[in-house]
Design a protein that fits this description.
Layout lengths: L3 H12 L9 H13 L3 E4 L15 E5 L9 E6 L12 E3 L2 E3 L8 H19 L7 E6 L7 H4 L10 E7 L5 E6 L1 E10 L15 H10 L4 E2 L4 E10 L9 E10 L2 H22 L2 E10 L2 E2 L5 H12 L5 E4 L5 H7 L3 E6 L2 E2 L7 E3 H18 L5
Parallel strand pairs: 3-6, 3-7, 7-16, 8-15
Antiparallel strand pairs: 1-2, 2-6, 4-5, 5-18, 8-14, 8-16, 9-12, 9-13, 10-11, 11-12, 17-18
């Protein structure tokens, strides 16, 4: 059975290892040691070459061979990086809750997921639980665009189904729907002029951008779809009509058609505003990731539901407006559910997680491995 104090102490150790996106080297080296000690063969790929910040750290890919189990090879995954401010985390443990000291994030996103996977590996080794093989992937740079998963060396991944531990819902929640996301950068070009002497000779790029944004549907579009304008950079001085404005934003939807329609609507508004004022608009659109939409009868969903029920948890099939490595894995043909691990107020200095959730996460992962031996495809 899982060891509560071991789980908590390992989590406390992990969150105190700095691993902001692009700076995962120290954590990766520690996890290599832990995985090797657990009997897994560990490799590191070249995904770190695809990011422009920090030391070059790749994804960790570790394999535990089958020990006679009849079940499928499973992929278990969590990401190593944290958002900022994530340096010098000082965890505080009180009344069954673990939080940061208040000046950094805690890093339960996603070190709670890593902790659950490590404890699961220990328990199945200690109790000699039969399994059909396990591949563990700890990714880099998830928080800055799923970079690790996008550049994972998939030639080393043999598992065709798995579980990503990276949702804020309670243990027992199974995310089966997640959105397609597009990002855009719009460069609006007007004409510079002296703002006090000859403003009529200029074309104000900020005004053009403002008109474009005012014509857009943004925020919550419908149950499945959202859009946002996140950044606007322009101007050099108050006495110069700004020649250029750069706007960055996004659109996402559970429904890929709606996502495409929304991003095209935003592009159209920039073009309309530019034409109205005699400016130009160059809009670069990037599809960040594709949606996934798993059937309630998909194998990883059935395994997770049955495992949760065996622990007395109420399985909840949900959807999220956020992307995760599960989006990328599903797009590469690895059928993955994203599991709730009970982290709260992530990406803030008020982030916390309960000790109970840390323990339940590990119990659920052990039960998932057991259940996979008994579930038919």
């Amino acid at each position: 059975m899982v060891n509560k104090e071991r789980i908590i102490q390992e989590f406390l150790q992990l969150v105190q290892v700095d691993s902001e996106s692009g700076a995962e080297r120290q954590l990766a080296d520690l996890l290599k040691e832990k995985l090797t000690d657990l009997g897994l063969a560990v490799d590191e790929d070249e995904a770190g070459n695809f990011i422009e910040v920090g030391r070059r750290t790749g994804n960790l890919i570790a394999t535990l061979p089958a020990n006679g189990g009849a079940g499928p090879l499973l992929l278990l995954s969590a990401h190593m990086d944290t958002v900022k401010p994530g340096r010098g985390v000082r965890p505080r443990r009180a009344n069954g809750i673990i939080a940061s000291a208040g000046d950094t994030v805690l890093g339960s996103d996603d070190k709670a997921g890593i902790t659950a996977i490590l404890e699961c590996l220990r328990v199945i080794q200690e109790e000699k639980i039969a399994h059909g093989g396990i591949q563990v992937v700890f990714t880099i740079a998830e928080e800055i665009g799923l970079v690790g998963a996008k550049n994972l060396d998939y030639s080393r991944i043999k598992a065709r189904l798995g579980f990503v531990l990276d949702s804020g819902g309670p243990p027992g929640e199974i995310i089966i729907k997640a959105p397609t996301q597009y990002s855009f950068t719009a460069t609006v070009k007007g004409k510079a002029a002296h703002a006090g002497i000859a403003p009529e000779q200029g074309i104000n790029a900020i005004v053009v951008a403002a008109h474009a944004i005012a014509g857009m549907r943004v925020g919550r579009i419908d149950r499945d779809t959202t859009a946002n304008i996140g950044l606007l950079n322009s101007g050099v001085a108050t006495n110069i009509v700004p020649e250029q404005a750069v706007v960055q934003g996004e659109a996402r939807s559970i429904d890929p058609v709606k996502a495409e329609e929304q991003i095209q609507h935003m592009v159209d508004e920039f073009n309309k505003a530019a034409a109205k004022f005699g400016a130009t608009a160059e809009v670069e659109v990037v599809k960040e990731y594709d949606a996934f939409n798993l059937s309630p009868d998909a194998l990883p969903v059935r395994i997770a539901r049955q495992a949760a029920e065996k622990l007395g948890l109420k399985p909840l099939l949900g959807q999220t407006g956020g992307g995760s490595d599960a989006n990328i894995f599903n797009g590469r043909g690895i059928v993955c559910a994203n599991l709730g691990i009970g982290m709260s107020k992530v990406h803030t200095t008020e982030e916390f997680i309960s000790e109970e959730n840390l323990v339940t996460n590990a119990q659920l992962m052990v039960e998932i491995v057991k259940t996979a031996q008994q579930t038919k495809e």
